[in-house]
Amino acid sequence: MNPVHDDGERDGHDHAHDEGLSQDLGRIVESGRRPMARRGVLALFGAVGAAGLVACAEGSDKTVVSGTESAAQGGPPAGGAPPAGGGADSGVDVAEGEIPEETNGPYPADGTNGVNVLTESGVVRSDITSSFGSASGVAAGVPLTLKLKVYDLDGEKISALAGAAVYVWHCDRDGNYSLYSEAVSEENYLRGVQAADESGNVTFTTIFPAAYMGRWPHVHFEIYPSLDDATSASNRLRTSQLAFPEDVCDEVYANADGYGTSASNMEQTPLDQDNVFSDGHSLQMAKVTGSIEKGYVATLNVPV
């Protein structure tokens, strides 16, 4: 199957997922990203202790973004176009060192483009491989455990954003988005919400997504202040996307069953040409460990 999408976007298990702020600091420094505001650097220094700060290399990357990014237009999802619309501006101002703000694309199901899955009973869950409510489908694919850790970078100190709600969604191994692509329009799998624990952690059980035409493999997510706020996109604190390392994608798409044309699709849209990640992805590139046989674990720190 070779689905075509218009994402409307610029557009063994390793459990050592809590690497803390030292991982964030390393990514900010090593990426050539502009240095953080002074108080942000001082706060990071206090958090990582005697590790020491090194000078940021020169160069540019995404650090301050407001609203969504311009879209590269392609075709509709396989089997039919989504409802009119295609992503919403959040108007979020992003400080240096925070996870970049990105478009939510035309398949968010957060009320900005047709259906709002966030108001449905059952959407708060950790295992998003199956549909819920009246739907019964299960997404097949290589098992993936997705671990996100949300930090609050506001003010003079950095702390875990305990109680924040995280909504994640992504395509299946055929490149289809539930509730939008015709083949899975009656399903709502690969979508779910969780509240961060006292350390800012959320963990989702899902499957490795496909690479479809025009986009690098990715997962969408939105951060909300709380579960009570996670019913309308107007309440979100941040919208962003997680990218997968090329070597892991190559392994999955070349050897796992059911991923069809993902390998060739990924080759046609390299990471440096993807219309979301091409202008910088250091804070959005997940660390991924594991194998096809045992499943993968993807971890990402999310400073907001």
Number of domains: 1
Helix content: 10-25%
Helix and strand composition category: alpha+beta
- Residues in β-strands, percent: 15-25%
Spell the H/E element sequence: HHEEEEEEEHHEE
The profile of the biggest β sheet is: 5 strands, mixed
How would you state the average pLDDT, rounded? 78
Task: Tell me the number of strands.
Answer: 9
CATH class: Mainly Beta
Fourth-tier CATH superfamily name: Aromatic compound dioxygenase
Rounded to an integer, what's the Rg over CA atoms?
18 Å
Structure description:
This protein has 304 residues and is of the alpha+beta class. The chain has a single domain, classed as Aromatic compound dioxygenase (Protocatechuate 3,4-Dioxygenase, subunit A, Sandwich). Helix content is 13%, strand content 18%. The chain contains four helices and nine strands. It has helices at residues 20-30, 38-48, 246-255, 262-268; strands spanning 143-152, 159-160, 165-169, 191-195, 201-207, 218-224, 238-243, 287-291, 295-303. Strand 8 and strand 9 form a beta hairpin. The longest helix is centred in the N-terminal third of the chain and has 11 residues, at 20-30. The radius of gyration is 18 Å and the shape is globular.
